[in-house]
């Protein structure tokens, strides 16, 4: 299988970032650390739970790329929210952030296009779940890259291999991956955003 090109990854991530922009608040928060913690702990718990559902099947659930897709969607949302909290509004910088943290790819800066108005957003568990599922399906287009995303520790994975209780191991692994994503994203933003 041929390796994915930077152009393909960039195209998918641009679409993903534009969708993330529809669920972010209109203005960045003054307290950046508090906003990052909120995104990590509130929506992060929901996205980790969604990604860990395949753990009910134990090792058989790992045969599907669903956990990686949902986990990457949750991590991508967290990164977009972090960038927004740091005052980053342009799509291309967010694409570079996601490519670096999720896929370990350094992308060259692209010219910034004119911003477009995001579609009105709906709030609630059901619209959020639908949004997360659509973003996970979008990320399936780069499924080879999903294996590079931050993940939990080896013991989370080992617990995740067991049927039924595997969901708990996968959930704890997804939460650990979100924390790792937040730390890496913060470092990237400090280095690349003035």
Question: In summary, what is this structure?
Answer:
This protein is mainly α and 194 residues long.
Description:
With 194 residues, the protein is mainly α. It has one domain (6-109, 120-192). Helices cover 63% and strands 0% of the residues. The protein has nine helices and no strands. It has helices at residues 6-21, 32-41, 43-52, 66-85, 91-103, 125-139, 143-146, 154-160, 166-192. The protein starts with 5 loop residues before the first helix and ends with a helix.
Strand content: under 5%
Number of H/I helices:
9
Radius of gyration: 16 Å
Domain unit count: 1
Low-confidence stretches: none
Shape type: globular
Any descriptors?
0% strand; mainly alpha; 194 residues; globular
Give the SSE layout:
Layout: H1 6-21, H2 32-41, H3 43-52, H4 66-85, H5 91-103, H6 125-139, H7 143-146, H8 154-160, H9 166-192
